[in-house]
Amino acid sequence: MSSNSIRILAGNSHPALARLIAKRLGTDLANVTVTKYSNQETAVTIGESVRDEDVYIVQSGCGEINDHLMELLIMINACKTASARRITAVLPCFPYARQDKKDKSRAPISAKLVANMLTVAGADHVITMDLHASQIQGFFDCPVDNLYGEPSVLRYIRDNVPDWKSAIIVSPDAGGAKRATSIADHLDLDFALIHKERKKANEVSRMVLVGDVAGKVAILVDDMADTCGTLGLAAKTLLDNGAAAVYAIVIHGVLSGKALDVINNSVLTRVVVTNTIPHAEKKKQCPKLDTIDVSAVLAEAIRRTHNGESVSYLFGHATI
Q1: Deepest of 101, 142, 273, 312, by most Cβ within 10 A of its Cβ?
Q2: How many CB atoms lie within 10 A of CB 18?
Q3: What predicted TM-score, i.e. pTM, was given to this entire model?
């Protein structure tokens, strides 16, 4: 007779986060082997029974993103054909989230394609964190829980930023204004905005500051840092306008290309990222990097989902 217990499966994208989640839930990771044939095909072997169990597959959208996505799809399908009761894809960082709209002629909406692939593979439920655009939830025909890193960010600012009560929250672009104003309101702080003009993707040409940062600690807030060109330029713009120091807090630290060099050579005091994407090796090369652990939020979301409890509590409260 099945106990319908939680089974945590980990892909190769972020096993450290999966282990932290399992530890917080008081369980071990399920025995899964993911290998590649010599022709680069992905092969998945699930080494224990998942029949009638509540399965959660942790796989973040990072690193070799296409391999990891295919790995996730095969793991979902393997669990489906092994008669799992419910399969939840836990994607701390949703892959292809930036390709969420047709912003130019003949542009693909790849986030919708990923949603379709997950559903067809057999996912019954998706848990993710800070989607690049909340509307991506509407791409799915199954329930999606989009968790927020904001409560954890608020706690980090209160605990680790000196003189935070006289700080100012800054959005590095117009798109992140809603996120930054929400944090500013919770902390009862002022808000500023940087308008950026791009000549082409991943390259910012000019920045204009809207707001007064003179003599204040500026805290840049964004959902994703890829090449960090925006953060580096934004920090310089803020210092040029009289900011006392500049911190950057980002949910998904992709940190690709020359990102670490940009951070090390920038005027940023500290760059804080969550562990939705692994960056332990990058921290060794970049002393300015700091981490917010979100494994507690994801573990609590899994526990509440399994027990049929409301997940909305997590939208406004940081778990310890």
Answers
A1: 273
A2: 26
A3: 0.93
Share in percent of the chain as helix, strand, coil (round to 5): 35, 25, 35
The three-point CA angle 200-98-59 to 5° equals 135
Q: What's the one-letter identity of residue 167?
A: A
Q: In what order do the strands lie in the sheet with 144-147?
A: 6-10, 54-58, 86-91, 125-129, 144-147
Angle at 301 between CA 295 and CA 304, to 5 degrees: 140
According to DSSP, the residues that pair with 57 across neighbouring strands are 9, 89
Backbone angles phi, psi at 183, to 5 degrees: -65, -45
Residue 150 identity (one-letter amino acid)? E
In eight-state DSSP terms, residue 29 is: B
Which two three-digit tokens encode residue 79?
């669990």
Q: State the Cα angle at 205 between 203 and 211, rounded to 5°.
A: 115
Per-residue tens of pLDDT for the chain, all 320 residues = 346 899 999 999 999 999 999 999 999 999 999 999 999 999 999 999 999 999 999 999 999 999 999 999 999 999 999 999 999 999 999 999 999 999 889 999 999 999 999 999 999 999 999 999 889 999 999 999 999 999 999 999 999 998 899 999 999 988 889 999 999 999 999 999 998 776 666 666 678 899 999 999 999 999 999 999 889 989 999 999 999 999 999 999 999 999 999 999 999 999 999 999 999 999 999 999 999 999 999 999 999 999 999 999 888 877 76
Contact call for residues 147 and 129 (beta carbons, < 8 A): yes
126 neighbors 144 (Cβ within 8 angstroms):
yes
Q: Where are the beta strands (DSSP E) in the chain?
A: 6-10, 32-36, 42-46, 54-58, 86-91, 125-129, 144-147, 167-171, 190-200, 203-210, 217-225, 245-253, 270-274, 289-292
Cα distances (Å, whole numbers) of residue 151 to 1, 171, 176, 289? 40, 17, 16, 20
